[in-house]
Specification:
The protein is mainly β and 196 residues long. Helix content is 0%, strand content 66%. Strands 8-7-6-5-4-3-14-13-12-11-10-9 form a twelve-stranded antiparallel beta sheet, with no helix packed on it.
Length: 196
């Protein structure tokens, strides 16, 4: 299910065959090259696709592309460790942002009530984030109904909630409106299908 790619300079990279879930994946976020999620919202469809592993910021990462139509408008770089998925940085419209320190996106073994903090810092961009897991809820999507754990991401500038189901991954995402007491329609993204 995996093989080692040896470069001419003597370096090597562990590669996983398409569709094979990386053994370090959290139970609620199966990471496998060539797979992903197709969502729909009021603006139409968009996808998140896990690409090949490649070096980014000095780390061996999976490139994860956000795709609208035929093009990827953003890539995020995920590093898998024993404790979960860490975000090393992003590439937006060709500009790379390597974070000073990776932040923990999702714990490998996550339970309702788990909470942790991190920071996103790259050049002039700096934001502290707080991540809280729970509760588990039933989420209805065009792809079916799922028992999913809600994970809330709150930062100085940006905040959103995501729901992750075991063995499936992300099934729902919605932004948090600021100020929080303001009544405003939220553009909810729902899973349409898994990309295998």
């Amino acid at each position: 299910s995996r093989f080692t790619l040896r470069e001419m300079d003597g370096s090597s990279t562990t590669m996983f065959r398409k569709g094979v879930v990386d053994p370090l994946s959290p139970e609620r976020l199966p990471v496998a090259a060539g797979t992903g999620w197709l969502f729909e919202d009021e603006g139409g469809e968009f996808g998140i696709r896990i690409g090949v592993r490649e070096p980014f910021g000095g780390q061996d990462c999976y490139r994860v592309d956000w795709i609208q139509g035929p093009v990827a408008y953003q890539s995020e770089f995920w590093m898998l460790r024993d404790d979960g998925v860490w975000v090393v940085g992003r590439r937006v419209l060709g500009k790379e942002m390597v974070f000073d320190r990776p932040y923990l996106l999702l714990k490998r073994s996550m339970q309702a009530g788990d909470k942790w903090e991190g920071s996103v810092k790259a050049g002039a961009i700096s934001q502290k984030i707080s991540i809280t897991a729970g509760p588990e809820e039933e989420v209805k999507t065009p792809a079916g109904s799922f028992q999913a754990l809600r994970v809330s991401f709150e930062g100085d500038v940006l905040a959103y909630r995501r729901w992750y189901a075991r063995g499936v991954g992300l099934v729902r995402e919605e932004p948090v409106v600021f100020p929080k007491d303001k009544e405003e329609r939220v553009n909810v993204k729902l899973l349409k299908k898994r990309i295998e």
